[in-house]
Amino acid sequence: MPAIADPVSRLLGIRASGPLPLMSAVENGLPLAALDRVVRSVAPSDSKFAFRIVARATLARRRKASADATVRGGSRLSAEEGTRLARLAGVWTAALDVWGSEEAARRFMFEPHALLHGRRPVDVVLENELGRPVVEGILGRLKYGSAV
């Protein structure tokens, strides 16, 4: 999976070459800027999309802490939030690879899919870790010409 780590790290705006450094970055707390970058890429017209990754009140508190230079550590995502964000970033970069454009990738991510029993890929991915390989499997079949 090293091939996926580099585009994911670039999307997150962090320096990590490979899955283990990416895991460490997530465990140590991704910066809020990583959240902003992914949200701008995946759902630029949805002002509430970030709240699917971080609760509204928590995000507001972290943004306030980030603006206050005397507060340390409040401007990073928790490991759980970072994992959710990295999971989304991984599937998003795979969708971009398959579809070739943000518009087409967005259409795939946000439209119900028959192989997901009418659920949207973005919802399946964000729900829990088990959804990621299911959506990546669909993307893999699309990329390599299998039936989907």
UniProtKB/TrEMBL annotation:
Domain of life: Bacteria
One Gene Ontology molecular-function label: DNA binding
UniProt-listed InterPro entries: Antitox_Xre, Xre/MbcA/ParS-like_toxin-bd
Annotated ranges, domain Antitoxin Xre/MbcA/ParS-like toxin-binding: 94-145
Protein name (database record): Antitoxin Xre/MbcA/ParS-like toxin-binding domain-containing protein
